[in-house]
Amino acid sequence: MSYMTLQRKALIDVLEQHRDEPLSADRIITLIGENASRSAVYRNLSALEKQGLIKKTAASGSNKTLYRYVGSDECRDHLHLECSACGKTYHLKVPATNALINDVMQDANFQIDSSSTVLYGICEKCRKS
């Protein structure tokens, strides 16, 4: 059983406000502000990961750990597209997600966990820059 402490609430608020961004622990601590306890942030990130509310990934071309919030309704049953240049995450629309998942199931007899699947590429804005 986990309690909704002030630290956990502040962490979840930051993650929800930045749900389309993979965030480092340092960035999360900065966003929480002066009341952030480094140990509480790491402890809560670990607990939220075990609960399936965040996904932990490595930054592209780095060993830095990033956290992406997947606890919102917007993230459920969506494949995620992540720009390798700017790091922004996009949600693939449900019809496209369902079509891809069904095609993979038929072709490879493989079931995809859409809530934890990220496809990497370059977004339109970064391609234009």
Structure description:
The protein is an alpha+beta fold. It has two domains: 71 residues, Winged helix-like DNA-binding domain superfamily/Winged helix DNA-binding domain (Arc Repressor Mutant, subunit A, Orthogonal Bundle), CATH 1.10.10.10; 53 residues, Dna Ligase, domain 1. It is 41% helix and 16% strand. It has five helices and five strands. The strands form two sheets. The chain has a three-stranded mixed sheet with strand order 4-3-5, with no helix packed on it. It has a two-stranded antiparallel sheet with strand order 1-2. Strand 3 and strand 4 form a beta hairpin. The termini are far apart. The mean pLDDT is 84.
* N-to-C series of helices and strands: HHHEEEEHEH
Assign the structural class, choosing from mainly alpha, mainly beta, alpha/beta, alpha+beta, or little secondary structure: alpha+beta
Averaged pLDDT, please?
84
- Percent of residues in beta strands? 15-25%
Instruction: Find the count of extended strands (DSSP E, 2+ residues).
Output: 5
Total of helices: 5
Briefly note the CATH topology name of the largest domain: Arc Repressor Mutant, subunit A
The radius of gyration over CA amounts to 16 Å
Poorly predicted spans: none
Task: Show the helix and strand layout.
Layout: H1 6-17, H2 25-32, H3 38-50, E1 54-58, E2 65-69, E3 80-83, E4 89-91, H4 94-108, E5 118-121, H5 124-128
Parallel strand pairs: 3-5
Antiparallel strand pairs: 1-2, 3-4
